[in-house]
Known about the structure:
By secondary structure, the protein is α/β, with parallel strands linked by helices. It has two domains: 6-40 and 338-451, Aspartate Aminotransferase, domain 1 (Alpha-Beta Complex), CATH 3.90.1150; 89-325, Type I PLP-dependent aspartate aminotransferase-like (Major domain) (Aspartate Aminotransferase, domain 2), CATH 3.40.640.10. Helix content is 42%, strand content 13%. It is built from 15 helices and 14 strands. The chain has a seven-stranded mixed β-sheet, with helices on both faces. Helix 2 crosses helix 3 (68-79) and helix 13 (335-362) packs parallel to helix 15 (434-451). It is globular and about 65 Å long. It starts with 5 loop residues before the first strand and ends with a helix. The structure holds pyridoxal-5'-phosphate.
Amino acid sequence: GGSSTLDASEPISKSANFKNSLATLEDHFLMGTPVGDRNNWSISNYFYLQVLAACFYPALLEDDSLPLDVKQRAESLLRECDGGSVGSYTDSSGITKIKHCVSQFITRRDGGVPSSPDNIFIKSGSQTIMLKLLIHSKDSCQTGVLIPVPTYASFIIALEEQGAAIIPYHLCEEQGWTLQVEELRKALHTGRKTCNPVALYICNPGNPTGHIQSRKSIEEVIRFAAEERLFILADEVYQSCVYGDDTEFYSYKKVLSEMGSTICSTVELASFNSVSKGFMGECGLRGGYMELVNLDPAVKEYASRLFSARSCPPVVGQIALDLMADPPKPGDPSFPTFSEEVQAIKNTICKNTGRIQEVFAELPGISCQPLKAGFFVFPCLHFSLKKRQMEPDMLYCLRLLEETGLHVRPGCEYGQRKDSHHIRFVHLLPVISPVQKLSIMLLDIANWYLLSY
Length: 453
Ligand SMILES: Cc1ncc(COP(=O)(O)O)c(C=O)c1O
């Protein structure tokens, strides 16, 4: 590799602790920790694969090797498809039976809070339809949407595409990326000087931060949205990937429903979930849903019309959604294998996130907030640059890639406070032995970080 252009503003001590940590990491890597060969990230679940295969090739329904619950599920899904074929159009907001299945899933998730299939809109992933409804690009005053910093980068692009003004509010990194209402208030006040803020986008659990909001924090945000008459866009796609100790996911819908009669019947909310970010991570199948709460019936009607202009969501994604919302239950023939697979994924996540936090706790010059949920790690790199030919974190990522072949993303793509620098990487690795691979990766980040000073 070439000479480094990075320069620390203060010398960083290469402590004995850190050297020990690297040594442990190396041992760990040499010993390896095989964690089984069936937990690759992406579609690896037998139940999902078998139902999808039988829906696409119904001759398999005659195959004795398929479990009974797989056949029954595939048959019931095919009955909902015109001509018994997954190649037919469906209703533009999704297959009715699957919308029922999703609303039952939501009711179970929220401990009995009712959900109606009429408020469920199945979609092929992203939430841009909702943006079309909220953002009026032709108005003389631009529509504003409050978004967290850092946030999921594609959402910013979608907002810009619709002509929205972005009003950033910063999450508080030092306190585990918490969302502070004072920060929202400040951002709204500033936003009102240049645009017309109508919506507040929340990402909970957070991408790329790995944080999850407490119930109290959600209540505060809802109260703020009620006072300021803001529409809440709750991106809750990481809801099933929660692993921090004493950590529980509360949906905005559930918390809202328990907040007293005026607030619970007036604050407008769209909540999103997706098969992309559930335990099986089938992002290529393109299935997701939006639940609308407290919308004026005329506006909901208009939303349906916008949806129908887009034809129907892909049937394969709808089937995946049905399987996510109604997985095998105890007593079903597929249950033992299914639960073993889910458990293996959970174990991998726990091992990986535990390992990452151990290593970063020892590493000088890098700090990482507690990881509680989601797929990502967003550690802060405490450095400054002599030559500012590009963003320091971008430069770090490029050099890391050149020197080690390791691909991580720079924090500037997600937003960060001025003069703070981060990298983002996924802690669930799509490889045969994730923990082993993770150890190599952390070792590369660590070694390279030291070499750079
Ligand atoms: C917070 C968040 N929302 C939505 C999405 C998009 O999900 P989908 O694949 O359903 O479009 C992602 C994808 O990374 C995400 O991180």
